[in-house]
Amino acid sequence: EIVLTQSPGTLSLSPGERATLSCRASQSVRSSFLAWYQQRPGQAPSLLIYGASTRATGIPDRFSGSGSGTDFTLTISRLEPEDFAVYYCQQFENSLWTFGKGTKVEIK
Amino acid sequence: QVQLVQSGAEVKKPGASLKVACKVSGNTLAEVATHWVRQAPGKGLEWMGGIDPEDGEIFYAQELQGRLTMTEDTSTDTAYMELSSLKSEDTAVYYCARFDMRRDAFDIWGQGTTVTVSS
């Protein structure tokens, strides 16, 4: 089973700042199978990025994904108030789906 | 557009069984590869099981094998998740989600069903 390790656990930033979130896999992941989700308090997760770098429908361009192999990154170029949330990476391989433990982006 | 609407909150005793429904609207169940994800209080997302859209086979997370069963009723476009021998650690919000083959990601989520297991 591929384990996804997200870091940091919590990121304390101010609105307008840049956020860089890391997702590291225990073995190589096909980029097409790496996705990122946002979860706001009390809500279901929502798809942000799929295929490691493609924004889902309606996602603003301040969100970007990059990476390959075992190292992937989600970047939020300038944090808006609604971006303070928890972010999860997720992959699937050999009919097993796994999530990272999440990174919480909180207001500093 | 496609929506997933889940059944309401449940309170169960340890050892009991749970069945949560996920009704598909805006499409037929046959067109939706349904997965289940749960989230314990204050914790992250845990994939439980789902349908591989390539071949329709159902796969379960290893730690839930033997207790988890996913079924479908195509006449009502409703997917079901059944979890038996409930423990307090099964207390969580349970989500159904569509795995979209075009994006290889979970693009549509149900609203969640809160399940409390307590004596």
Structure characteristics:
heterodimer, A: 108 residues, mainly beta, seven-stranded mixed beta sheet, three-stranded antiparallel beta sheet, B: 119 residues, four-stranded antiparallel beta sheet, 0% helix, 52% strand
Secondary-structure element order of chain A, as H and E? Answer: EEEEEEEEEE
Total number of helical segments of chain B?
A: 0
Q: How many runs of DSSP E, i.e. beta strands of chain A?
A: 10
Low-confidence spans of chain B: pLDDT under 50, at least 5 residues? none
Overall shape of chain B: globular
Biggest interface and which pair forms it? A-B, 26 and 24 residues
Question: Which secondary structure elements does this structure contain, and how are they paired or packed?
Answer:
The complex is a heterodimer of chains A (108) and B (119).
Chain A: E1 4-7, E2 10-13, E3 19-29, E4 34-39, E5 46-50, E6 54-55, E7 63-76, E8 86-93, E9 96-99, E10 103-107
Parallel strand pairs in A: 2-10
Antiparallel strand pairs in A: 1-3, 3-7, 4-5, 4-8, 5-6, 8-9, 8-10
Chain B: E1 3-6, E2 10-12, E3 18-25, E4 34-39, E5 45-51, E6 58-60, E7 68-73, E8 78-83, E9 92-100, E10 105-109, E11 113-117
Parallel strand pairs in B: 2-11
Antiparallel strand pairs in B: 1-3, 3-8, 4-5, 4-9, 5-6, 7-8, 9-10, 9-11
